[in-house]
Amino acid sequence: MDAIQKKELLHLRIEQANEQMLDALAEMAETLFKTWQPEAIEEVVKEEKNEAELAAIYAKHLKPMTRQEMKDELAEAMTDYERGDYVTLEEMKKEAATW
C-alpha cells in the first residue's frame, strides 16, 4: 500500500469514526507528531498565533454602528459609485499583483 492509499484509508476511517474514536485518533496523532515531527506542530502554533494577532489588530478598528450610521455610510458609498469614484475588479487585480 503506497502513501496515497494509506492517506485515503485514514480519511475514510476518520469519516467513519464516532466522537469517542475521533478523540482517541486526535490524541494519538498529536502524540505522534510531537515525537517525530515537532516542527510541524510548531509551525501550526506560529500560524495560529499570527492569525490571532491579525484578528486582534482588525478588531481594534471595529466599532458598533447604529442603523443610521450604517445608512449614512451606505449613502456615501452610493454617491461615490455614482460619481465614478471606485476601483474596478481588473484595476484591483493589477494593483494586487504588484504587492
Fold blueprint:
Blueprint: H1 3-16, H2 19-36, H3 38-60, H4 67-83, H5 89-97
Helix pairs in contact: 2-3
What's the gyration radius in Å? 24 Å
Largest sheet: none
Secondary-structure element order, N to C:
HHHHH
Number of strands: 0
What is the percent of helical residues? over 70%
Q: Compute the number of helices.
A: 5
Coarse shape: elongated
List the domain count as a whole number. 1
How far the N terminus sits from the C terminus, by CA atoms, comes to 44 Å
**Poorly predicted tracts of residues:** none
Mean pLDDT: 87
Structural class determined from secondary elements: mainly alpha
How much beta, percentage-wise? under 5%
How would you describe this protein?
This protein is mostly helical. The protein has one domain (15-86). Helix content is 82%, strand content 0%. The protein has 5 helices and no strands. The protein has helices at 3-16, 19-36, 38-60, 67-83, 89-97. Helix 2 packs across helix 3. The radius of gyration is 24 Å and the shape is elongated. The two termini are 44 Å apart. The model has no long low-confidence stretch (mean pLDDT 87).
